[in-house]
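User: Quick sanity check before I run a bigger batch. Here is a single chain. Can you write out its predicted 3D structure?
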Amino acid sequence: MSSFKHKDEGFTGLEAAIVLIAFVVVAAVFSYVVLGAGFFTTQKAQQTVHTSVEQSSSTLEIVGNVYGTGTGDGSSSSTIKYINFSMALAPGGTPIDFSKVVMVYSNATTLETLADNSNASTVVTQPSAGAWAITEVQNSPSASASILLQPNEQFQISAQPTNPVLPNDVFTIEIRPAIGAAFSITRTAPAAIYAVNTLY
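Assistant: Done. Predicted structure follows.
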């Protein structure tokens, strides 16, 4: 009668190599999965940071002064009809499609969203009441002006609130692009309003 005893004489080098290769393959697959997940997470974090910076920073700036025009003669009944200013991209700013821009006018008694009177050619003399329009394009990179504000380009914008601006009135125009933070312009009408007024 033979007795069964534990012997490893049959455990050859070939079997050891197979076990070793299996461990190496499992480790390689596991490391590939871990690295892939790490790269994906890093890419998502980078994308989130870029999107956050793009959304939080304003890419617009005012070029020059803000002017108010009307038919004023300096009397107490004079009012400002149009608010005029030039906009450009801030350094490093991405182009902004002004067909998707929303402008909101507000003062102590009024809050209104101004309609867009601009068109594809951007040639509008003045906007109608309760609206804004691009009245002139300067430094356009192409022969045909468009409502896409590009680097080094300037848009002359005119806004006409439904109710005219009265003397000493403090008002705000908020420009909200589709991407990026809103840009606010707060000015005060002078006590004596004339045909052309610089607003501070």
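The first strand starts at residue 60 and ends at 70.

User: Great, the batch can go ahead then.
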